[in-house]
Amino acid sequence: MAAEGFLVMAAVVAMASAAVVSALKGGGGFQGVLTLVRAFPLEERVELEAIKARDKARHARMLQSFSGGIVDFTVGGTSDPYAGGLYYTKVRLGSPPQEFNVQIDTGSDILWVTCNSCNDCPRNSGLGIPLNFFDAATSSSVSPISCSDKICASIVQVASAECSTESNQCGYSFQYGDGSGTAGFYVSDMLYFDTILGTSLIANSSAPIVFGCSTSLFGDLTKSDRAVDGIFGFGQQGLSVISQLSSLGITPKVFSHCLKGEGRGGGILVLGEILDPRIVYTPLVPSQPHYNLYLQSIAVNGQLLPIDQAVFTTSGNQGTIVDSGTTLAYLVEGAYDPLVAAITAAVSSSVRLITSKESQCYLVSASVSETFPAVSFNFAGGASMVLRPIDYLVHMGYLDGAATWCIGFLKVQDEGTTILGDLVLKDKIFVYDLAHQRIGWADYDCSSSVNVSITSGKEFVNAGQLSVSRSSSTTDIFKTIHRTYTALMLHILVLFIGIQFL
């Protein structure tokens, strides 16, 4: 009778499995019967390696059918101007992949790396990182972009490309705000990256992208003290990597970073949305080449400064932009002078003032966090960015036994652009939600893990501690399945116990 009871139980389990499958499909009855076949014979001993090999093959099939997720990048560098003053990440390009350290720059659009034919490029870096050069001849997947290519035609329309009739190559030559620049040609090749799929599950993914191969540099880009292999532009134009990958359906049209300011720096960079209940959002100014925001007022210790609203207007070369490629911060004269005056008035009785050519400095014997006031930048939508003293001051050394701190904002003429660089961006989550044309931020310890969403109901934890949580709707589905399964198992158990006493 025990054997007969086991057979009855097995039959009921099969029916229960079919019922669960039916519930998942939304059916009201049994849709079919699952045939269960053992992967390994019951009579044979199976080695652990064989089981691991089968699991690995199964996981590979799962990854091949995956259509999108979070792309996770490592972050190095620091906001300290005396230790480089920039943040960088690694990208892998070509087949076989070649690795490059590129600066994270939200103030430009193009990803470019130095070519092996570059004569003006530095050969070593003061950042302590190796410098590499892209060799198109060794990549089996590279494809030059010709002048007749429709991609080149679209790039030329936005004035970031030029065509050489002699070489028939789609080239470029552009200059950054600090006067440095680069020139070269566009190619298409494979970009390799890590895609986070779930709990401790990372896919080695790749996608073809268009990027620049630089053959010449000029300005500060030629100097070795801050040399990197290129620049990773995170702008919102069509040729940026975030735009290319989102158009392929690989990533959502949102990316986030959390740049660590203390110690050796580093941080978090993901193509996905970091989630935190404290994040406040403000809209982007539409139809702008950069991440322009509506700055409305500035306050010191909660008191609004007497600043003419006209200096914050976005028009031509005027406005307020977020730029991770800038180390310090820049403020137009009409806002800079009232800000410095208010900060100085708040601390003049407890510090010694030092006036330098470019900035207001102070000799401080106590802690700056206890001495200096909080500064608030107030944006459209009621979003305020509260700056701690270390978010607007730069430590310049010591004099007469006291620490020297200077205002980290530099003055630009009216009709100029206010730029929020790494000094302000550090130690905060920043979310660039291109799909909804907004930017959000919140103070955060960037050495901690973060919750990241791909805006489709899945949430993951990044920064080395991967775990998965679900949206409420997804959780409800699994709770329903769990309750159904539990009820079925209890029913099976009752039947089995009853059979034993027959």
TrEMBL record:
A single GO BP annotation from the record?
proteolysis
Q: Which UniProt keywords apply?
A: Aspartyl protease, Glycoprotein, Hydrolase, Protease, Signal
**Catalytic residues in the record:** D105, D323
Q: One matching Pfam family, short form?
A: TAXi_C
Question: Residue limits of the Peptidase A1 domain?
Answer: 87-442
Q: Where is the signal peptide?
A: 1-18
One molecular function GO term is: aspartic-type endopeptidase activity
Which Gene3D superfamilies does the annotation name? Acid Proteases
Family that this chain belongs to: Belongs to the peptidase A1 family.
Please report the name of this protein according to its UniProt entry.
Aspartic proteinase-like protein 2
Q: Which organism is it from?
A: Sesamum alatum
